[in-house]
Design a protein that fits this description.
Layout lengths: L11 H34 L10 H20 L5 H6 L2 H28 L2 H8 L2 H12 L6 H22 L7 H24 L4 H24 L10 H28 L2 H9 L1 H13 L7 H46 L7
Helix pairs in contact: 1-10, 1-11, 1-12, 2-9, 2-10, 4-8, 4-9, 5-7, 5-8, 6-7, 6-8, 6-11, 7-11, 7-13, 8-10
Length: 350
């Protein structure tokens, strides 16, 4: 069913749609921290027995449950006996691994990282994602290695490094938090690779619903194991039920739908370039929504990131133009050969 082969043959319009959805998902995910901060402020203003009930764990768990409602409404037609019988053992393995990585292990590792280190250090470790993802698709999925996109990913990482170091004003250390952040980054890359493989042969509805259900169950028990049996005691408090919809609709439903559908159609280079923009987008959104000071690293780091993305896009356009010209030359050559063959035939029809 699902093959980890070269990139599938997809119509150009699908590539454009896939790239657009990936960019939308990246911007939404970049805004997620600011959205969570706004909701956490609301929780602090309306405590439940002295506790802030609007925690990231409560938002993620309850938001995932809520997101199942529109998913079932949109994708119930995919859940047919015929489609389920077509799924091989390999497909179910891909679904299960993807659920465990993306919906449970990755967020849990990021939460652990934030318990032991600063957000800046987590961002610094996480910015290794674009070039590592591109290399991973080359080695594991046999995608074509685009040197322009690779250069853009490395350039964006350098820009993010500059932002973090200029804003932090101190040296970078590597401890438990940084190790957890590195593991979370690797887990996220692995989940993206698994998703790309699975989405080529598994209906989107089955993929989305199964992964959300199983991932939510795994995440619940993992959080209980990490933080104790009372971790979700305020899950159904009024303030959480009132505001969780903001997180569920924007981040989980729209964000995940755009990401999954984008992965199904986008090239690896599109994913790498879009994720390179994430740190700059996160800073700008935090500045707009939260009024945060982005620090002195915003402008120089942002220029480097935008320059890297521009270089990557320039290279992509140049390559596409060269491919189009090559196809036109091949078509013209085939036409000339056909005319030459016809000229050697005396009888041309009556």
């Amino acid at each position: 069913m699902s093959n980890a082969a070269a990139e599938p043959i997809i119509a150009p319009s699908k590539f454009v749609m896939g790239a657009g959805l990936i960019w939308l998902a990246v911007i939404i995910y970049a805004a997620s921290n600011s959205i969570v901060s706004l909701l956490a402020d609301i929780g602090r203003e309306h405590p439940v027995m002295g506790r802030n009930a609007i925690t990231l764990c409560n938002l993620l768990f309850l938001g995932s449950l809520i997101s199942l409602v529109p998913m079932v409404f949109m994708f119930w037609r995919d859940w047919t006996l015929e489609n389920l019988r077509k799924l091989s053992r390999k497909d179910w393995t891909i679904l299960t691994v993807s659920a465990g990585l993306s919906s449970a292990l990755s967020p849990a590792l990021f939460f652990i990282a934030l318990d032991y280190t600063t957000v800046s250090n987590v961002v610094l470790i996480g910015r290794s994602e674009p070039p590592l993802f591109f290399l991973a698709t080359f080695f594991f999925l046999k995608d074509q290695l685009d040197p322009w996109a690779m250069a853009a990913g490395i350039g964006a990482r350098l820009g993010a490094l500059g932002m973090v170091f200029m804003n932090a004003g101190e040296g970078f250390s590597f401890g438990k938090g940084e190790l957890a952040a590195a593991a979370a980054t690797i887990s996220f890359i692995a989940s993206t690779l698994v998703s790309r493989v699975g989405l080529q042969g598994i209906p989107l509805g089955i993929f989305s619903i199964y992964r959300t259900v199983l991932g939510t169950i795994i995440y619940y028990w993992l959080a209980i194991w990490l933080y104790g049996p009372n971790h979700f005691q305020d899950l159904f408090s009024n303030v959480v039920l009132k505001w969780v919809w903001v997180y569920a609709i924007i981040v989980i439903i729209i964000g995940q739908f755009a990401w999954n559908l984008g992965l199904k159609n986008a090239r690896s280079a599109d994913v790498s370039l879009a994720t390179s923009f994430s740190p700059l987008a996160a800073l700008v959104i935090a500045m707009i929504l939260l009024g945060e000071d982005p620090g002195p690293g915003l402008i120089p780091g942002g220029i480097v990131i935008l320059g890297a993305i521009a270089i990557g896009q320039f290279g992509r356009m140049r390559k596409q133009r060269a491919d189009t010209e090559a196809q036109e030359r091949q078509k013209a050559l085939e036409t000339d050969e056909a005319l030459e063959a016809e000229s050697r035939v005396n009888f041309n029809g009556a």
